[in-house]
Amino acid sequence: MKLLISIATVASIMASDALADTYKWVTYKPQGAGDAQAITTQWFADQFAERTGGKHEIEIFWGGSVAKTREIPETLAAGVGDFGDVVTPYFPDLLPLNNAIGFYIPQPMDSLGVGEAMEEWHARYPQFSEELAEQNLHAVGFRPLESYGLLCTKPVRSLDDMKGLRIRSYGFAYPALIEAMGAIPVSISTADAYEALQRSVIDCTPIGPALARGWKYDEVAKYYIEAPFGASFGHIIAMNLDSYNAMDDETRAVIDQLGHDYLLEYSRQLDEDAARVRELWKGDLGVEVMEFPAGELEALVADERVQAVREEWIEKAEARDVPVDDIVEKLTF
């Protein structure tokens, strides 16, 4: 009898071990980046292990070791990874609904507001999740970027000062907005923007303080203009849909709650980063922060080029039977 009990106990332990899962998180972010994204990615993994009582864990594959930035959606969809950072603005044709913020710059929400809006839209409108499901993806959390202004190599105090400036551009809203300002949109990657500022290929780039410091743009551009662009939407914390559906109910509930808690933790870290950078700017980094007449920028929203971009998103949303009125109201001043 004792032997049978012993065998049963060993079998139970082995079965328990067999049920333990290690999920793979693929990210382009270097582990040592030390910014809000890197810190909270590790926080998510630690919390997942803690909240599942060590039954499950996440192994993070840092620095593009498994997939580069633009490869992550396909990598996740194929099941090579379970979790990953989908940089939504890079895939506007693949994920137009989930890129709503990218069609509405400037907009009035801060980082936390943008993240909460994405949570709300996913909860209220199944089309947002269906768009991801078509790529075998599921959103477990949202990582908005910080509120953006303009980092420039020369002082800019009004729209008149923007005439003829070369400004880094990407996505949908920024090219139209920059042209409406009387400036020239220049398409340059994030990685190439440092040299472009240094060599005067561009005069300004839309960015927030934390990212400006992270990419060291503030070494070569010393004027930060508080243009009220609002927060940009950055990343979906996505899962392979099959991996998500294969979780037991208890683990899935942990992930669902953790996704919301992640937004709060990430937003807190991001705010701390931005405040720290602004203090550094006052010191040895010597970046001058300049006010910009908010009314001037908001008036640009009426420009037909800016409105055409917004109408384009509305058409895409209505084509999928998404009620747009509440969404548009949240995105407009």
TrEMBL record:
Keyword Signal belongs to the record: yes
Keywords, sorted A to Z: Plasmid, Receptor, Signal
Highest taxon above the source species: Bacteria
GO BP field: transmembrane transport
Segments traversing the membrane: none
The keyword Signal is assigned to this record: yes
Residues annotated as signal peptide: 1-20
Record NCBIfam families: TRAP_S1
Protein name, UniProt field: TRAP transporter solute receptor, DctP family
